[in-house]
Amino acid sequence: MLVAVSGNRALPGDPPTSPSVSDNTERPIEDIETEICALSGQIAAATARYLILLADFDRRRGWASWQLRSCSHWLSWKAGVSLHTAREHVRVARALVDLPLIADAFARGRLSYSKIRAITRVADSTSEPTLLRLALEAPAAHIDRLCRGLLVARRPTKNNNLDDAKYCGRWHWDEDDGSLLIHARLRPEDGARLLAALTRAEYERTRTDPELDVDGAAPAPRNIAPALVAMAQMVCAGLESPVASPAAEVIVHLDAAACHAHLDDGPGLEAESLAEILCDATMRTVSHGSLGKTISWSASARTPSRLQLRALTIRDRCCVVPGCGRVRFLNAHHVHYHSRGGPTVLENLVMLCSEHHRALHDGYFTIASDDNQQFVFRHTDGRAILYSPAMTDDSTDFGERYGVIDGDAIVPDWQGEGLDLSFATDVLIRNWERAA
């Protein structure tokens, strides 16, 4: 039976509709202002709870698995935020652990995330009470300016009496596991330049959008090893090797039976490490006979061909491991290993970033091909690796779980006075130094 429905009346079972913009025009403007402030306080309290949970999740390394590089990467993947925003959320969450007074005010909806984001860049146990009081009284714009001013004022001055002899760097091969050990001490300005280069290299190594500009706000990576390797790759790709300088190339020595390999004047290579190198590397191989004589010196070569790489890049665009999407430092991997007779054809090639390429050869996951340029990624226990992680939502009403937030909790006690930045930073720093 057909039923005619007139007007905008909701049918039984329809979800409740939100008030439209036109509905708000009939309400007193004061009521709208009150509701906006009340919602801002609730958002701040919810954000505080979110960051507290995030800090605990990060501390317990709940994000750690072979396909995830950091808690920020997990958050970007699972929560749908940009990688830069995820980095900031993780940084603020970690900082709040050591700032209980500020975290409590945040959880009660009295401080906005914008204020918390600025304060956590400069606050410590000594300055926390003062910064909390100022944050409760001043608008977010003043707090942001004040914290930037504190960062500048606290910046150490240059010491011209430093001993240049102690600034040096050394490296050597570890005899136990064949790893390369590097130890260095740099002048402050040189160290800052190195960190800037590492930050750029890390961005290039991990970025997933080929058109996106460099994120200048991203911090230098805490683990600099992957970025250091990326820097080495960029230099080797961008600068021609000197003709008579073997140390400027990656040279692998193979015996006549190809059952043993080692780096030139370096440690031996395991079978999987050699297989990883042979997948897609610009290198020379030196084969030796039974008496140790050099019997062949290959020309510098790269597999696959330039035309195949172009077709592979057009097909895959990025690292094809589910959840990755990196667009730089990609390797053409042979699903059936090149070192074991795998053909160099598109049906046997996939694009992998350097990190997932290594993880594959280290046995963290497997790839299978159907010989029709379709590939299946699986965990070591046989489970398929999904492109979209499962999401669950069993949240209850926020008010029931976290309590009621006052409507004016987030409104600061500001009377409209201006901020004298130089005077404020000078007084705060002097007071904190005296208290310390």
Helices and strands in order:
Blueprint: H1 21-24, H2 29-59, H3 71-79, H4 83-96, H5 100-107, H6 113-119, H7 128-137, H8 140-153, E1 169-173, E2 180-184, H9 188-206, H10 225-238, E3 251-255, E4 261-263, H11 271-279, E5 284-288, E6 294-297, H12 306-316, E7 330-334, E8 349-353, H13 354-361, E9 365-369, E10 375-379, H14 398-402, H15 421-435
Parallel strand pairs: 3-5
Antiparallel strand pairs: 1-2, 3-4, 5-6, 7-8, 9-10
Describe the structure.
By secondary structure, this protein is α+β, with helices and mostly antiparallel strands. The chain is built from 15 helices and ten strands. Strands 4-3-5-6 form a four-stranded mixed beta sheet, with no helix packed on it. A hairpin with a 5-residue loop joins strand 3 and strand 4. Helix 2 (29-59) packs across helix 4 and helix 8 (140-153) crosses helix 15.
**Poorly predicted segments:** 1-13, 390-396
Spatial separation of the terminal alpha carbons:
81 Å
> How helical, in percent, are the residues?
40-55%
Number of strands: 10
Number of helices: 15
- The strands making up the biggest β-sheet line up spatially as 4-3-5-6
* Backbone shape: globular
- Gyration radius (Cα, Å) is 29 Å
Structural class comes to alpha+beta
Average residue pLDDT: 75
Q: What is the string of SSEs from the N terminus onward?
A: HHHHHHHHEEHHEEHEEHEEHEEHH
Instruction: Tell me the major beta sheet.
Output: 4 strands, mixed
Percentage of residues in strands: 5-15%
